[in-house]
């Protein structure tokens, strides 16, 4: 009897696991898969490029400071601390701005991305502590768009798929952050200049932003295709 109970329990667990796997598979790879949404796929590609550029200032900024002999000023108030502190305020302020009835969250999100990539590209050109501090403050503020990502994701996939979609975006950001610093180090090993890490990462970020700009076009195309299918039915 005891053996039969164990066998029955194992059988029930197997059925439960199979049902759970079937639900997970249909959610991610089935007919209702998020990956069939081309707008969302473009957003994932942006996420794969974006976060690697954001972490690079934290990796190579101390070396830029040493290169321009600004260590004494940086020791008083580190530039990386400026990024972190202003980042907190950026999240709150950008969230408040995007909540205004006359403001589009998507436009705020795009403008913050453009500001961030511009600052990353220009940061190596700054050679004084004050100019670096201003650029770092802008990096911290514009990177506050992270607080808008759940809202933007919901607009793309709807409330029903928000949890899965946002998890995928965070995973893409994690992959980007994982490979960003080693990639920046590899660039330095080749060029022996820290500047090129910012330039190349900024250009890759621009590629991600291009995919953001393509999203309205993709949405219009998908709407036309959906209308055509409904008309045929």
UniProtKB/TrEMBL annotation:
Assigned keywords, A-Z: Membrane, Transmembrane, Transmembrane helix
Domain Major facilitator superfamily (MFS) profile: 38-233
Regions that span the bilayer: 28-56, 76-94, 106-126, 132-153, 165-184, 196-214
Location in or out of the cell: Membrane
Tagged with keyword Translocase: no
Membrane-protein topology: Multi-pass membrane protein
Main location: membrane
Gene Ontology molecular function: monocarboxylic acid transmembrane transporter activity
GO cellular component terms, semicolon-separated: membrane
Domain of life, per lineage: Eukaryota
Protein name: Solute carrier family 16 member 14
Lineage: Eukaryota, Metazoa, Chordata, Craniata, Vertebrata
């Amino acid at each position: 009897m005891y053996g039969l109970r164990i066998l029955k329990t194992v059988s029930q667990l197997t059925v439960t696991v199979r049902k759970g796997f079937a639900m997970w598979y249909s959610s991610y790879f089935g007919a209702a898969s998020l990956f069939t949404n081309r707008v969302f796929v473009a957003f994932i590609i942006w996420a794969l490029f974006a976060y690697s550029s954001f972490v690079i200032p934290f990796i190579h900024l101390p070396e830029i400071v040493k290169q321009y002999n600004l260590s004494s000023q940086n020791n008083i108030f580190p530039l990386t601390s400026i990024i972190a502190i202003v980042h907190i305020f950026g999240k709150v302020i950008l969230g408040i701005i995007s909540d205004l009835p006359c403001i589009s969250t998507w436009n705020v999100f795009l403008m913050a991305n453009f500001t961030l990539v511009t600052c990353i590209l220009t940061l190596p050109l700054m050679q004084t502590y004050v100019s670096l501090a201003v650029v770092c403050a802008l990096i911290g503020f514009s990177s506050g768009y992270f607080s808008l990502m759940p809202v933007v994701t919901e607009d793309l996939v709807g409330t029903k798929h928000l949890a899965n979609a946002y998890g995928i975006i965070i995973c893409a950001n994690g992959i980007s952050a994982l490979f960003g610093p080693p990639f920046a180090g590899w660039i330095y090993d080749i060029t022996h200049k820290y500047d090129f890490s910012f330039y190349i990462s900024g250009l890759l970020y621009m590629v991600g932003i291009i995919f953001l700009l393509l999203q309205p076009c993709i949405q219009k195309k998908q709407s036309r295709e959906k209308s055509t299918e409904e008309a045929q039915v």
